[in-house]
Amino acid sequence: MEKLPAHQRVVITGIGLAAPNADNLADFRAKVLAGRSEIREIELRYMGRVPAGVCVFPETKHRKKKDNKRGTRAGCLGVYAAHEALLDAGLTLAEGAGYRPDRTGVYIGLTEHGTVETENEVYNISQYGYNVDYWTHHHNPRTVLNNPAGEITMSLGITGPHYSVGAACAAGNAALIQGVQMLRLGDVDLALCGGVSESVGSFGIFASFKAQGALASHPDPTQASRPFDLDRDGIVISEGACLYCLETLERARQRGAKIYGEIVGYAMNSDALDFVLPHGPRQAECVRLALSRAGLRPADIDIVNTHATGTRQGDIEECRGLVEIFADCPHTYFNNTKSIIGHAMGAAGVLELAANLPAFDDHLVHPTINVERLDPECALPNLVVNQARRVERVDVILNNSFGMLGINSVIIVKKI
To answer: What are phi and psi of 17, to 5 degrees?
Structure first.
């Protein structure tokens, strides 16, 4: 691929996040390197105790308690991550200072939205004989799909475009891709994009995975998420948020910004086969397309962060494709972040990318934890298991993120 001019090259200059084990990138990185999971059991309506990833962060740091109460959990997570991303980037959104609010776009990836609020309201009126007089008038603005993105714009006074990108568990990556495209088109000068999930508040999501035989369980909740392990039994559901500030390389250099990396390749495609079951060959096609668009060979990739969720078929399908693509790449390493934080749905891909980006500086590949008996069908070459590994170099990271209804996404980030 011909190298793009600086005004078309898109870089990451700010990261804000709330994960089940941290509320900032430095702590998040330290904990994933240590393999420290803070998955815990929660008491879920109708289901009892289940393992889940719950975020603990200063919810009123950037927005008042009354505004959080009026809005949604997803909005609360998104507002926090958006403010933190801008702070990390050293940006101010105001006329004459930094980027203009009307030239800033907000693109938020979602797996689900509105289920938590709807379930809570139905339960609430059930306590009053299903009298709809007790149904909140906030329900509609809480449940529209653009809600988290809209809450972010109201909190920050952003008057540029905002919308959600619905792409199942590939949504975080999809929102990053949207941000890159809008910057290259010149529609915006700054993109705030990433993913948000409030799914731990929905018993329906837990119940559905349980009905599919895909909800993880373990006496020790920190060991419940175990991709690639023979004893894996499903997904640990987590909430979370991770937003990125994206801008062109030209603008970032003009203002002397810290640059985490450049998004040099991406791809999305569809399996077009099944509502739930993944298809490895289409996932592999997506990886190859992203590599082609980036002008890279498989051997150029230093870290592949896998999507694997801890379901038997899902893990195996992904691994088959990766083994084929990276068969002759002795310096390509593989890891999995979900083993540490669970599956954060719409926020998964972007949280997992954030967990790996600091490797450009420290040359450490964070581990995949809870692998006690590696499934031979998931024996990826150079899979980093249970302990972080120091490597000679990290210049390029590839991030896989796949979702239901057969949607696949891949992002490739290169060190500047």
So the answer is: -150, 155
